[in-house]
Specification:
The protein is α/β, with parallel strands linked by helices and 209 residues long. It has one domain (3-208): Vaccinia Virus protein VP39 (Rossmann fold, 3-Layer(aba) Sandwich). The chain is built from nine helices and eight strands. The chain has helices at 3-11, 13-16, 27-31, 47-55, 68-81, 93-100, 130-139, 153-164, 189-196, and strands spanning 17-18, 37-41, 60-64, 86-89, 106-112, 140-150, 169-171, 202-208.
């Protein structure tokens, strides 16, 4: 962690941070309005969520990220842009969703380029497992959308199998397995790295049925 990141975590957490707690977040109180709330799981240093928050001031954006240096960088960038519609929770995503994200409160959820854990013995560590997907489904509003992207074909296959095990989510790209790349999805450093390595990005979009 750099000194600037550490300073951001101290000085900017009151403005952008969400306290870890054992109770649900009051999203209306957190943002001070009733605008649609979008959630990014694993937002890293903010490549995607900052771009979306800047482009869509009428929406609220909540990010979950476990890596503290990344959270510090995100806060610095958000402050430099003067963003008011962004907050960040520095916590493990599985715990955060289960404990702090209210049911039926989120309009759109983004899971872009999660760690693929490519070795077979590590596949159980992959974030997108049926139980977690079911938890995400419960946090979506009735008309909510779940967007996923990965540049690892094996993980894309895994996601397809996991989604098939979870009821109540409809593949909006059907009969195709994958969706076109959303024009609004900002490129991240992980996507650019995958492109340099010749990886093909697979996008998914599901609606709550």
């Amino acid at each position: 962690m750099t000194p600037a990141q550490a300073r951001a975590l101290t000085e900017l957490s009151p403005r952008y941070g969400v306290q870890i707690a054992d109770t649900e977040i009051d999203l209306y109180a957190l943002f001070g309005n009733r605008a649609p709330c979008h959630l990014e799981i694993g937002c890293g240093n903010g490549d995607c969520i900052i771009s979306l928050a800047q482009a869509n001031p009428g929406n609220n954006y909540l990010g979950i990220e476990v890596h503290r240096p990344g959270v510090g960088s995100l806060m610095l960038r958000a402050a430099a842009l003067g963003l008011r519609n962004l907050r960040i929770l520095n916590r493990d995503a599985v715990e955060a969703v289960a404990v702090q994200i209210p049911v039926a409160s989120i309009d759109q959820i983004y899971v872009f380029f999660p760690d693929p854990w490519p070795k077979k013995r590590h596949h159980k560590r992959r974030l997108l497992q049926p139980d977690f997907i079911a938890a995400l489904r419960e946090r979506l509003r009735a008309s909510g959308r779940l967007f996923i992207a990965t540049d690892w074909q094996d993980y894309a296959d895994h996601i397809g199998r996991a989604m098939a095990q979870v009821g109540g989510l409809v593949n909006l790209a059907a009969p195709a397995a994958y969706a076109p790349r959303p024009a609004w999805r900002p490129p991240t450093r992980y996507e650019r790295r995958g492109g340099r390595l010749g990886h093909v990005v697979r996008d998914f979009v599901y609606g709550r049925g």
